[in-house]
């Protein structure tokens, strides 16, 4: 594998730096992937890695040796080495990772889904990433991200999901009321999460084909989307705590749904 130097004003660094912004990602049609964990998930998902910049000290110490071998097997024949100043300029965090990469996003793909999660105006990238990570972990097929929801492919969401977004069928900027209505017409049941009313998910018999609707942290599910909810779910909490945030609530419910399928002998064989 060829290793080339990348200075602060080099073309590759300028292009990579632009990927920290939504406009740059749109114009280049690329994602900014930070760190070995998320990059490995991108490789596992079969995504194309266009460029990689590695911290020079990580290269010299051998910390990235195993990952470089994986990149070579995926057809990457060149990486760029850079110093601390360049790595910091490419990072969306206070502390930079050993490497960053420009990656082609997954192509939209049709999926014969059974279980989806729908995010209704969830703006916090950490919460969006955590919900998507839980969806992948608990066997959901994909996610609908409604208007006002954070971009699933921005760096903060990718990090919070630990790359799990690459393993889900995602549709963004979805008209959720219309999509949920269509799902119900096809026989799916829509479950909405609410902090104040609804059935305890531990006592619920879940449908085989379903959508879980998660509202924003502040206002919850929008009125238009709420009209499409068949069953509301509420997670009981200690009186000292009014409610859980969107990611924590979704994690509990998605796990309960996965456990119910397992207990009913309906668990899948993907593991």
End-to-end C-alpha gap: 33 Å
CATH topology of the largest domain, by name, is: Alpha/beta knot
Low-confidence stretches: none
How would you name the CATH homologous superfamily of the largest domain? SPOUT methyltransferase, trefoil knot domain
CA radius of gyration is: 20 Å
Outline the secondary-structure elements.
Blueprint: E1 2-5, H1 11-18, H2 22-28, E2 31-34, H3 36-44, E3 49-55, H4 56-61, H5 65-73, E4 78-82, H6 84-89, E5 99-103, E6 115-120, H7 125-137, E7 142-146, H8 155-160, E8 169-174, H9 176-185, E9 189-193, E10 210-215, H10 223-226, E11 231-233, H11 246-263
Helix pairs in contact: 7-11
Question: Overview of this structure, please?
Answer:
- This protein has 271 residues and is an alpha/beta fold.
- The protein folds into 2 domains: 2-103, 2-Layer Sandwich (60s Ribosomal Protein L30, Chain: A); 115-263, 3-Layer(aba) Sandwich (Alpha/beta knot).
- Helices cover 35% and strands 21% of the residues.
- It has 11 helices and 11 strands.
- It has helices spanning 11-18, 22-28, 36-44, 56-61, 65-73, 84-89, 125-137, 155-160, 176-185, 223-226, 246-263; strands at 2-5, 31-34, 49-55, 78-82, 99-103, 115-120, 142-146, 169-174, 189-193, 210-215, 231-233.
- Strands 8-7-6-10-9-11 form a 6-stranded parallel beta sheet. A 5-stranded mixed beta sheet has the order 1-4-3-5-2, with helices on both faces.
- Helix 8 links the parallel strand 7 (142-146) and strand 8 (169-174).
- The mean pLDDT is 91.
């Amino acid at each position: 594998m060829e290793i080339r130097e990348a200075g602060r004003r080099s073309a590759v660094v300028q292009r990579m730096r632009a990927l920290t912004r939504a406009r740059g990602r749109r114009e280049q049609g690329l994602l900014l992937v930070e760190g070995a964990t998320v990059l490995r998930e991108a490789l596992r998902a079969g995504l194309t890695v266009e460029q990689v910049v590695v911290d020079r000290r990580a290269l010299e110490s051998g910390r990235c040796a195993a990952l470089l071998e994986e990149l070579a097997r995926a057809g990457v024949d060149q990486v760029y080495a850079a110093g601390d100043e360049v790595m910091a300029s490419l990072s969306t965090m206070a502390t930079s990772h050993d490497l960053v990469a420009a990656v082609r996003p997954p192509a939209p793909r049709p999926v014969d889904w059974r279980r989806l999660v729908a995010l209704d105006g969830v703006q916090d990238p950490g919460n969006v990433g955590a919900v998507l990570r839980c969806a992948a972990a608990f066997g959901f097929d994909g996610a609908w991200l409604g208007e006002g929801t954070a971009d699933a492919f921005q760096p903060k969401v990718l990090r919070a999901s630990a790359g799990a977004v690459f393993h889900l069928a995602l549709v963004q900027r979805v008209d959720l009321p219309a999509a949920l209505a269509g799902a119900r017409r096809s026989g799916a049941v829509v479950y909405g999460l609410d902090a104040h009313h609804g059935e305890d998910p531990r006592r619920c018999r879940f449908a085989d084909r379903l959508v879980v609707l998660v509202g924003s942290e502040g206002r919850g599910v929008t009125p238009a989307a709420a009209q499409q909810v068949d069953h509301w779910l509420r997670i009981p909490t200690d009186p000292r705590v009014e409610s859980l945030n969107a990611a924590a609530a979704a994690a509990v419910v998605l796990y309960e749904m996965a456990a119910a399928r397992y207990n009913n002998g309906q668990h899948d064989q993907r593991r």
